[in-house]
Amino acid sequence: MPGSTIFEFLNRLPALTGKKVRLRPRRLEDAADEYRWRSDEELCRLDATDPLNFTFNEFLGRYSVELEYPGLSYTLAVDTLDGIHIGDCSLFNFDLPGATAETGILIGQKAYWGQGYGVDALQTFISYIFATSDIEKLLLRTLDWNERAQKCFEKCGFSPCGNTACGEYRFMIMEIRRRQALKNGQ
User: What are the DSSP calls for 2-36, one per residue?
Assistant: First the structure.
């Protein structure tokens, strides 16, 4: 398997540059944006979550602990090339024997929706993951009615591979494999 083990991978905090975005380690000053996005009803509906129901100071305490002790997840902030923080990309739910992980993306700054920032961020993230880790397959879940997200993921090389449900939510599962990503030039 090319690249590092997942544990070595999780200890790296790179700065990656795509055509429209930079992916970088998250910082404490990102907390205000993250809080606003996680409190936004529309964003939460698109992410199948409930808006936060606690204060910014409580969130800031949790956020600072998460930055210091990320556990088995990997999240990079997404900035425009001009340095505007617009979202994040994550890697989580690792299946070490299966060399599989789940990925997700949030473009929280709505003014940047539909302009290719999400596609560029995810393609940049996917390329880095497959080039530097032993992960062979990435999965993601998207709400079955969220056609805009599905189109973004298809542009990045993901294809539908199943469906699942969690409570009232119905999700499409999509995947991309290392071989497929390398074939697509990622």
Answer: -SB-HHHHHT----EE-SSEEEEE--GGGHHHHHH
Residues 124, 17: contact at Cβ < 8 Å?
A: yes
102-160: per-residue pLDDT in tens?
999 999 999 999 999 999 999 999 999 998 888 999 999 999 999 999 999 999 999 99
Written in H, E and C, the secondary structure of 76-125 is: EEEEECCCCEEEEEEEEEEECCCCEEEEEEEECCHHHCCCCHHHHHHHHH
Please give the single-letter amino acid code of residue 88.
Answer: D
Give the CA-trace dihedral at 130, 185, 139, 72, to 10 degrees. Answer: 30
CATH 3.40.630.30 is right for the domain spanning 6-140 = yes
Structure tokens at 178: 């290392």
In a 3-state reduction of DSSP, which class is residue 170? strand
Task: Indicate the average pLDDT of the chain.
Answer: 91
Lookup: tokens for 93: 């739910």
Quick one: CA dihedral 137, 141, 147, 152, positive or negative? negative
Ordered by start, the domain boundaries in the chain are 6-140
pTM reported for the whole predicted model: 0.90
